[in-house]
Amino acid sequence: MPHEPSRGNSAADVRDFFTPRAADWDRRFPDDGPAYAAAVADLGLRPGDAVLDAGCGTGRALPALRAAAGPEGTVLGVDLTPAMLDAALREGRDGFAGLALADVARLPLRDGCLDAVFAAGLISHLSDPRENLRELARVVRPGGRLALFHPVGRAALAARHGRALTPDDLRAEPRLRPLLAGAGWRLESYTDEDTRFLALAVREVR
What's this model's pTM, rounded to 2 decimal places? Predict the structure, then answer.
């Protein structure tokens, strides 16, 4: 599961952080598969839907996303770090989705082309959270859905890194709700437990 980049959230910083960790990323977190599958189930995809895994990393969510969208659906995975996409290819996850090197700040997708976005561990790595979440809203149809996911909750993740939770954590509900609202999303449900973090939002009709 993603740690916090050590220097910042520019594209270069994120690549510098993840590149040396990509090769053994899945081996470091071998038991996350069921948590990813459960989060994808809660996203509520229907057969034929078009879904983006934003910041897909090694593509751990892609098999579950493909199963939910079905063979007639469209599943895309984008990541900023070439080494993470290389790891996804080695794992054969390009068999479940189209993979592309892209920044969520500037997605190569047309307005409203998606039914949903799945984003695991993404929000803490965004360079401009409000604008980046607005870009995700741009490519999702009104009424479409967003899942912000992490396989452990905020407190468990903080403890793992030897730090305390702080009020400025973007994933805290009092911060996340208005952040999403300002970017075109309505927070629909919020779960922050030791074994999962999942915020589900709906694309507002404007």
Answer: 0.91
